[in-house]
Amino acid sequence: MWCHKLSHLQSSLQNLAKGRDICQALHLSNFKSLFPLSIHWYHTASKSLKCTWHQHEDHFELQYANTVMRFDYIWLRDHCRSASCYNSKTHQRNLDTASVDLCIKPKTIRLDESTLFFTWPDGHVTRYDLDWLMKNSYEEQKQKVIQPRILWNAEIYQQAQVPAVDFHCFLETNEGLKKFLQNFLLYGIAFVENVPPTQEHTEKLAERISLIRETIYGRMWYFTSDFSRGDTAYTKLALDRHTDTTYFQEPCGIQVFHCLKHEGTGGKTLLVDGFYAAQQVLQKAPEEFELLSKVPLKHEYIENIGECHNHMIGVGPVLNIYPWNKELYLIRYNNYDRAIINTVPYDVVHRWYTAHRTLTTELRRPENELWVKLKPGKVLFIDNWRVLHGRESFTGYRQLCGCYLTRDDILNTARLLGLHA
Ligand SMILES: C[N+](C)(C)CCCC[C@H](N)C(=O)O
Ligand SMILES: O=C(O)CCC(=O)C(=O)O
Ligand SMILES: [Fe+2]
After folding, report:
1. What distance in angstroms lies between residue 222's CA and the mean position of ligand 1's atoms?
2. In a domain, 376, yes or no
3. I want to staple 80 with a disulfide (CB 3.0 to 4.6 A). Which of 54, 85, 350, 385 is the partner?
4. Are residues 132 and 266 in the same domain?
5. Which ligand neighbours the alpha carbon of 391 most closely?
């Protein structure tokens, strides 16, 4: 695992902010026309960017770099970066927010160069750099994507010719690891090749990018069609596209597959970008997209086979989106493991089935299906919050090993390498 290198992260954030100033300075020409005439505005030139602000009764309004931003006074007090309110070494808040009057108002506000000074009733002074305020404002944040992605169907993915990363490159170089993670973040799938076909080597790969998430299936799993567990994965049957562990309150973030052996026919792996399909639903039937993002459902796993006794339940909508920018972050789709729907009134149920059908139609379009035959030596990583997998039925002896990984920790690794995650 990686240790924290926050200074590195900070300096890349600073570079990002500098680049932004230059871009936004170019868009300043008509910002004056936005001002209401009836209230008193303060105009100041800071560096090259003009800034105008107004102290309203219940909030602070700032126009800077062509952006109109509003800040609640409690927010401005809460985010104070002074040494007594914030520990800049640990990046943690010292201030006890509950001790601040919810209706707090600054006694005075003044701007000096590019720094705003708020003096609070008890005399405490909070200072904010204009660029910091802008970067951290809601207005800025809602324009941004949390996770840049390339949504794909089979043709888009194949044309992109995303290369697999070599085993040694992945394990021994930061470039190899970074390339791999960049592919994974953009497409939701990525391959490592030339891996010795053993469970130990597969485990080593997994540990390079994240933490293994131990589950009811074990830490590293290793399975054949031996009916050893109460799930169709342990048969030779075809499996339609799905995401795994929908019956966990937090479905596993990443699935790793390594086919160690197959002597027989069939058994190809199916991959479908769930976010591409959801995007199609959003375009064709936005109210159905919304319904799929609002109606919570249960998924369930009940197992009573030999020594294995499990009963897992996970609740959540099929599509999970960030409310401020509507960006998708998780699809929970498994028709096998979907539990009884009894938390939704009948008229909504009907609309939900219609919406689910629309999504299923998109997910099942042949042009959205990427089929790959997993071979010993080639390890597949799947973003289980985004990309659905399935398999063709097969004959003969087939051995698959792999594991689940935690999502937070793969993103941690990616961020520390300077990637946007
Ligand atoms: C991958 N491994 C064989 C360990 C488990 C398979 C679990 C399959 C289950 N129906 C699900 O979708 O979650
Ligand atoms: O056998 C396979 O290729 C995959 C089965 C499956 O869906 C799983 O193990 O999660
Ligand atoms: Fe699965």
Report:
1. 11
2. yes
3. 85
4. no
5. 2
Relative to the CA of 390, which ligand 2 atom is closest? 7
Whichever domain contains 27, its CATH number is 3.30.2020.30
Instruction: Out of 141, 168, 187, pick the residue that ends a domain.
Output: 141
CA-nearest residue for atom 8, ligand 2, is: 233
Atom 3 (ligand 2) nearest CA? 391
Given 141, 165, 181, the domain boundary residue is 141
Which residue has tokens 């998430």?
A: 213
Question: What ligand 1 atom has the least distance to the C-alpha of 245?
Answer: 13
CA of 119 to the centre of ligand 2 (A): 60
Same domain, residue pair 159 and 253: yes
Domain range enclosing 371 = 154-416
Q: Are residues 165 and 224 in the same domain?
A: yes
Going from the Cα of 294 to the center of ligand 1, the distance in angstroms, rounded, reads: 26
> 242, 260, 287: which is closest to 386 by C-alpha?
242
Is residue 93 domain-shared with residue 210, that is, in the same domain?
A: no
Verify whether ligand 1 is closer than 6 Å to residue 225 (CB atom).
Answer: no
Co-location of 163 and 123 in the same domain: no
How confident is the prediction along the chain (421 residues), in pLDDT tens digits per residue?
Answer: 444 444 444 444 344 334 333 333 333 333 333 443 446 778 775 555 789 999 999 999 999 999 999 999 999 999 999 999 999 999 999 999 999 999 999 999 999 999 999 999 999 999 999 999 999 999 999 999 999 999 999 999 999 999 999 999 999 999 999 999 999 999 999 999 999 999 999 999 999 999 999 999 999 999 999 999 999 999 999 999 999 999 999 999 999 999 999 999 999 999 999 999 999 999 999 999 999 999 999 999 999 999 999 999 999 999 999 999 999 999 999 999 999 999 899 999 999 999 999 999 999 999 999 999 999 999 999 999 999 999 999 999 999 999 999 999 999 999 999 999 9
End-to-end CA distance of the chain: 17
Entry pTM = 0.89
CA of 219 to the centre of ligand 1 (A): 13
Contact in structure between 379 and 256 (CB atoms under 8 Å): yes
